[in-house]
Amino acid sequence: MQNSTSGVLTLLAVLPGFLLGCSGEDAPGSTAASPTFHRDVEPLLQKRCMSCHSPGNIAPFSLTEYGSAHSVASLLARSARERTMPPWGAMETDECQPPHGWKDDLRLTEEEIALLEAWAASGAPEGDPADAPPPFVAEAAGLPGVELEVAPKEPFVASGDADQLRCFVMDPGLTEARYINGVHLMPGNSKVVHHALVFLDRDGASDALVDEHGGYDCFGGPGFSGELVAAWAPGGVPLALEPNIGAELPAGARLVIQVHYHPAGTTAEPDATRLQLRFTQGVPEWLMGIALIGNFESPFAQGRGLLPGPDDADGVEFRIPAGAKDHVETMQFKLPAAVSAKEVYLYGAGTHMHYVGTDMKVTLGREEGAAGAPEEQCLVQTPRWDFSWQRGFYYDAPVEQLPRLRGGDLLTMRCTYDNSNSNPFLVKALKEQHLPAPVDVHLGESTLDEMCLAAVIHVTRNQ
């Protein structure tokens, strides 16, 4: 992602998917009171897991049959209790209580976790097949009311044993501005598409990057100051905004899809991931946007920008020393006075780092004297950062009940990193780069560079 302080967003990306399991007959020790697969567990797996763990999807095995679940029942229970599955980054912690709950929260309830634990502890019994719910049927793909679909110029074949990130440039052909009210990415080959992001190129800057096949390689971001429009990951569903909210798509703009391919050592069938759009009827009451704030290389005036860090060697610098654990870099940004001239509400938030990142917290400090506002509010924290599972998080509240943004408010990004061999994501990246040991890490877009970037999702009354 680029260092930009304005942008248009529609972050969608729902990431369900368990690493689960099961086998044959009722296990010794099960009782009539024990949860069973068909009666209790199968409906939960259908709801939470099978959009990925079903034939033809990206998960490594299917869970649509009892025999494919029993053998890893203990893993299922443990993953649920540790909340590593379904993958969901935003957490409430001792230092972060966001202003509202989250829309489309994927986390299991305590009752659901207890059910899986009880099933595993009783031997993961199958139960009576007559208790089974109707067979799993994936929801119909696609965005309801889709009005425009764009696709890459040519399909792409992922190959090799390392992940690939490829950008595809598309021209929606608009002769007048429209306002995106719904958006959905449709992977052409779900076996290898790990996730995808869509960026808005207002001025055609991507035209200078594209090759004869309509794309180019792009790790970290699209290679230009693009605004994020949409995102998708396995299990992703269409994002349909309220009728009075839209994100501007200017006439003549390009749309650039960045696809993260995970070929896993095999040559894939071709992929042609498509983007579906629908628009508001006329100009909407609220305009959705995103400010991508952070990646500051140096301090600003009044002590803002990059703040002093624990391992600074040559003045204030962004540097994560090789071998450093729990290294913290902090950045601050003061919202411009012009924000107060508009009616702007905080619709949601997101975080972005690379492989060395482990935890990111974004807080909003209120300008002194702001009526009815807490002195400081945590917007979002992702204490188990994972580059492979990224999304934006939307507050579950009506617009007028969301936090109001004003000029002078202070945004703080605190990013924590582990640049040692105890970080499994870094170890994997070092192996892919054929490096024997960690190296000093600086800001940048390459695999072993880092970022500290907040996504401030907002809606502004259209005046």
From TrEMBL:
InterPro entries: Cu2_ascorb_mOase-like_C, Cu2_ascorb_mOase_N_sf, Cyt_c-like_dom_sf, DBH-like, PHM/PNGase_F_dom_sf. Keywords: Disulfide bond. Coiled coil: none annotated. PANTHER family: DOPAMINE BETA HYDROXYLASE RELATED, MOXD1 HOMOLOG 1. This is Cytochrome c domain-containing protein. It comes from Sorangium atrum. The lineage of its organism: Bacteria, Pseudomonadati, Myxococcota, Polyangia, Polyangiales.
